[in-house]
Amino acid sequence: MSGGEKVISIEPLTRVEGEGHLRLVMENGKIKEVSLIIDETPRLFEAFLVGRKYDEVHEIASRICGICYVAHQITALRAVEKAIGVSVTEEIKKLRRFLAFAGWIQSHSLHLAFLALPDYFGHESVFSMLKSPEHKDLVTLGIKLRTLGNKLVEQLGGRWAHPVTCVVGGFSKLPDQKWVEKAKEMLKEGKPDAEKLGKVVAKLEVPDFTVDREHVALWDPKEYPINEGRLRSNKGLDISEDEFTKFILESTDPKTNVKRSKVKGRDVLLVGPLARVNLNYDKLSDDAKALADEAGVKFPSQNPFLQNLARAMELVHSFDECLKILDELDITAIKPKVEFEVKPGIGAAVTEAPRGILYHGYRIGRNGLVMSANVVTPTVHNVSSAEADLWSFGPHIANLSVDEATLKCGMLIRAYDFCLSCSVHVLRL
Amino acid sequence: MAQVKMKEKAKVAIFKLSSCGGCQLQLVDAGEDFLKLLDHIDIVYFPIAKSENLDGPYDIVLVEGSACSAEEIEHLRKIRASTKYLVALGTCACFGGLQSIRNFEPTAKLVDMVYEKPPKSHPTKSFGIDEYVKVDAYVVGCPVEPSEVVEVIKSLLMGVKPRFPPYSVCVECKLRENECFLLKGIPCMGPITAGGCNALCPSSNRPCEGCRGPTKDPNSKALAKLLFELGATNEDVRRKFRKYAAASMAFAGVGV
Ligand code: SF4
Q: Ligand 1 center to residue B143 CA distance, Å?
């Protein structure tokens, strides 16, 4: 099967958020062409945010993505608050941290159960899994976990998709102590489900495929990073969020004419669960780490297929984090919002969206209006990383039929959990 | 309206144009109600969730997003030709969505602000999809309410017109006995925004921003006048009306 030309085409990419396609051409067992193209029409958020008011930026930015809206809101809020000179209290930071982890729960369980797993069990979708007596329960498990993540976001955010209570300076309204007790109960009840799904993921057979990629993630000395931290990598990057655009640069690939992001002076980068687990393994909860043992995997790892395992570990970890935050919280003593005056200025923030580092930068003028906006989403980096992976994937697919090779490439791409709607807004860094 | 349900399950397809993807996920997140619906429908095209996606003809198509490029407009026309019923899913599809904010500036200038080189597919202005094709039912909201998506599919299956609240957010807000933002002197879009969210934002201590688009026969001019009286500038008023449904006829001529 290795002779002649083999064309692998996935159009449109399925079980991936947003519109895109893949074309990969092999000749005599060697890869000749890889193009992973995003087909979304740009919505031009960064252009139409200009002229909008500082207090609606996060509400508008939320609509960049229908899965990682929590991350977009928190990143926009932090960047705007920095620009206009607002500092929020430690309590508000904790609640935002809770919200972000709840966002991971809904996003990670959606990806694992609905988008990634069907391939591993020979199904085209969860709808076909639902019809299989053997795999039906996995779908129900996924729905349960996603619903739980949604509920947690809704209880604090007012609505699960595009929440409404997050505002500049804090929250417009906070739930009461009863919510804290209820949320704890839900988390305790749901955690065994997360571990169950995690164990399924830990047992998946993945190709032994190793690349050499720069993994970039937030880093914090004490906590598993989500809403703030320094940007670090396995190749020595160590910068603050304010230096982001100086070190993560865009360049045009002369071969494909596609824009890629690169680390200054080096190559493309991988962001997201695998990068985070690799760089912050010691801060994961014991139950999250137990999944790595279950899978017999040692981190750091350079196998992009293990993004699914890392995601499952983070899913379990998110339960532990949320519980810890609630245990330490006295919600009755929290002032929902800090008072502030709006000063003109510039501000940038980087957070860990479910799919990896997310950058927002704004300049706010004297009248409180946005003068410029810049958003760099994780998928921008990961599309380049996946494309680079596919260039070295040849030996793993050379002896497969076109159908089997297509499935394998699809599985690799899906392990990245792209969010293509997100990624089109951003090309200028 | 003819009944869709036949001996076989109804074929349903979900397409995405320029959008965030949030509305289609609301359908999946309808939970139990969605699973029950699967007894009556076959989802045959839904690329975010399925690998095997069939071409038409379909019985019901849900379109999320607005058509914002020549390619998307052509795609939308083909979709229309392939289905019995077409539903506009969400404020993007119904009224153009947040990306309609950009309709008042030359698109080329905006593209230039974001891209160094022009992108492959060139964006145009953003309108509701009924600018280009006939729409049989509208589900508003950014995002839509899961129950309303289920409701619209059920209604089409039974051949009845889906029923959504004919009143504004303001009415729901009064029923919830919230303190009125406008009476406190804070601009709020509640009086002219389609109800059905149970006044979510005002009940969360935030004024309505109009994410569900205009209600039936909104008195836009009267609200604009009130906002001016509260001290809003022309720019402030324009920003309020040119947001989720900037392209809507009901808002045309306000704050120009
Ligand atoms: S209406 Fe809002 S939630 Fe729905 S697709 Fe458009 S931006 Fe997303």
A: 5
Note the pLDDT tens digit of each residue in A86-115: 999 999 999 999 999 999 999 999 999 999
Chain B neighbors of A59, CB-CB under 8 A: 209
Report the gap between the CA of A333 and the closest CA in chain B (Å).
Answer: 19
Domain residue spans of chain B: 10-158, 169-242
Q: Residue A14: list chain B partners with CB under 8 A.
A: 47-48, 50-51, 53
Q: Is the pLDDT of residue A2 over 50?
A: no
Is B208 in the A-facing interface, judged by CB distances under 8 Å? Answer: no
Going by alpha carbons, the residue nearest to atom 6 of ligand 1 is B92
Task: Say yes or no: B201 contacts chain A, CB-CB below 8 A.
Answer: yes
Would A159 be classed as within a structural domain?
yes
Q: Chain B within 8 Å of A105 (Cβ-Cβ)?
A: no
**Helix A307-328 / helix A90-109 crossing angle, nearest 10 deg:** 140
- Residue of B26, B44, B114 to mutate, interface with A, max A Cβ within 10 Å: B114
- A230-233: strand order across its sheet: A238-239, A230-233, A214-219, A269-270
Q: Which among B48, B102, B200 is the nearest to A47, CB-wise?
A: B102
Is any atom of ligand 1 closer than 6 Å to the C-beta of A199? no
Residues of chain B with pLDDT under 70: 1-7, 115-121, 255-256
CATH code for the domain of A193? 1.10.645.10
The pLDDT confidence band at residue A1, using thresholds 50, 70 and 90, is very low
Superfamily (CATH) of domain B10-158: NADH:ubiquinone oxidoreductase-like, 20kDa subunit (3.40.50.700)
State the pLDDT at residue A308.
97
What percent of chain A lies above the pLDDT cut of 90?
A: 83
The reply to whether A427 falls in a domain is no
ipTM of this predicted structure:
0.95
To the nearest whole angstrom, how far is the Cα of A251 from the nearest Cα of chain B?
A: 11
Residue A429 lies in a domain: no
Model confidence pLDDT, tens digit, residues A384-400: 899 999 999 989 998 99
For residue B19, give the ligand 1 atom closest to its CA.
Answer: 5
Is A253's pLDDT higher than 70?
A: no
pLDDT category at A429 given cuts 50, 70, 90 is very low
Q: What is the pTM of this model?
A: 0.95
Domain count, chain A: 1
